[in-house]
Amino acid sequence: MSKGVLVDVTRCIDCKSCMVACKVWNDLPSRKTEFSNDLDAGQLNSDTYTVVNNCISENGDEVVWRFVKRQCMHCKEPACESACFTHSFVKTKEGAVIYKPTVVDQDYCVGCRYCMIACPFGVPTFQWEKAFPYVEKCTFCYERTQQGLKTACTQACPTGALKFGEREELLAEAWERINTNPRYVKHVYGEKEYGGTSWLYISDVPFDQLGFKTEVFNRPVTEKSIPSLTWQVLKWTPYIFVGWGALLTAMRAYTKRRAEVHNEEEMYGPVDPKE
Q1: CA atoms 131, 73, 51, 139: torsion sign
Q2: pLDDT tens across 152-193, in order?
């Protein structure tokens, strides 16, 4: 069974302990604005694998503040892995989607950044400031989980907003919390979005008000994975290649024969079709 994390948005108090733990464990430098007095910690970048940002939800006269932790969602069928033709991204059996150069010291990346384009959550970031850059993102603390340990962020969370465990067990617990407490939105974000993710969210505020992608071009986010969607087109590539090649070959043979007939007529005059 693959691992996962259940995030209960209602329990987050914006202490940023998860951000600090992530920085310490991954030996990442801090940027000036990340731990300032501002409520908004900014966006994911090459030095920041997770952020906690504030969201304001208005329901009539009631204003609700919520804090949302964001990081790589570690999809069950990751688009970044599918888009990477050098296989620098790998989906592990533990659930983590890892980038080889920064985890297992195998550098195949050519810097195409297709992974950044493919990711539906806009997670992977690039080390623009370095001469020999890597793509950076949350590793799901792969070294820790391999040893049976919790991720650094879940270990540091003081309120229980983050819970690490087996994905299926966490999913069952998420629905138990939802069904026993009417304040929760009856939806587990990450259960089915884009084929499902290792990070699962529950909330008492609609997810679209928390900055989650719930619609694309005014349609609900697909429950199919990105690789399965692209495969519907890519599976026809061999047939298109062969068919197009055959068509071009036939056109070339036809035009070549037309040219030969034209040259013969210029040399010997029109050919009588009765002859």
Answers
A1: negative
A2: 999 999 999 999 999 999 999 999 999 999 999 999 999 999
3-class secondary structure per residue, the chain: CCEEEEEEHHHCCCCCHHHHHHHHHHCCCCCCCCCCCCCCCCCCECCECCEEEEEEEEECCEEEEEEEEECCCCECCCHHHHHCCCCCEEECCCCCEEEHHHHCCCCCCCCCCHHHHHCCCCCCEECCCCCCCCEECCCCCHHHHHCCCCCHHHHHCCCCCEEEEEHHHHHHHHHHHHHHCCCCCCCCECCCHHHCECEEEECCCCHHHHCCCCEECCEECCCCCHHHHHHHHHCCHHHHHHHHHHHHHHHHHHHHHHHHHHHHHHHHCCCCCCC
Report pLDDT digits (tens) over 205-229: 999 999 999 987 677 888 787 777 6
Can you name the residues that pair with 165 across neighbouring β-strands? 4
- Nearest alpha-carbon partner for 159 in 6, 5, 8, 4: 8
Burial class (CB in 10 A: 0-12, 13-18, 19+), 102: middle
Tell me the backbone φ, ψ of residue 163, rounded to 5 degrees: -130, 125
- Per-residue tokens: 118: 């493919």
Instruction: Provide the b/e sequence for 109-123 (b: ≥16 CB within 10 Å).
Output: beeeebbbebbbbeb
| pTM, 2 dp | 0.81
Amino acid letter, 231: W
